[in-house]
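User: Please look over both lines:
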Amino acid sequence: LGFLRALMSSTPLQREFNGVAVPHVVVWTGPPDLAAALEWITGQLTALHDALLRTGAVLFRGLPLPDASAFDAFVKVFDALGYTDLPYDRSLSFAVRLPVVGRVCTTNEGKTGGLVFHHEQAQAPFFPSKLFFYCERPADQGGATAICPSDAVLQGLAAQFPAFVADCAAKGVRYTALLKAFEDPRIGVGRSWKSFFGRDTRETVEARMAELGYTWEWLEGDTLRMTTPLLPAIRTVPGTKKQVFFNQMVAQITNAREFSSREAGTASDVQVLLDQFLRFGDGSSVPAEPLLLAHRLCEESAVELTWQQGDVALLDNYAVMHARRPFEGPRRVLASLATEAGQA
């Protein structure tokens, strides 16, 4: 079947980085037959894997994917590449999400507006390596998912703040978060500590935290203050020599502002907030200025994936960060997260 073709770099959906057009775009031009489309995809998995490794993102357009069940069937085709489902109830996602069907869940239940650039769950000791996003309904206005190559961000940081990048590589980072006993979908870090760790009592949650290497303390109101084990701030994309700014430090500025509303007397100054919720592995302060630059670099390198119904974006979570743009009107973009054997 020859119904799928790759768009060239002239498409406005792409930007070029070091001679590589991002994302790789494929468009189904055949009949609205899901079985035929999935059969073609199955035969092209090696080529799609290579494209993803090269670009960090593949956008599929025009596939006959009318609903979440069809998207679920699409995702399962990639099992042949060694992808393994990372269900929400086993993930360490801060967001409140709801299961939809099979491997599919919502993206960030209840929270509207934009989300800053981040690597999915990079603030956790384990995380997905691949992300599938599916547009069931695009927003009336706005609502694109933006992506940016993480290596471009790291290169920009190294040019202006080489000592900071060296500290990231040498020291690693630890993140601190506040979780309550109940879920609050109105905020970015709205998941409860019970849901986050998949346990129902303080005792079982403490056992899980100890297993994963967290430290913690219990605050008033049944709030958990937890700090992650030491995590890398720079990683190498598997299968490449590409180094990336793989962490959650840019998003932690937003998280810190959110956490501060739950702690009386916290100053609004970004550095003061960061010092409470983000530290290098040796306990030293992470300077805010390079992170503010990283945020600007993400925006300068952004590629906007403007959704159409039925679109699927497959992202290499190591290689690219993603963000959600503000939107108006109903919007429904669903997700499926995957890990791989031997994942770092």
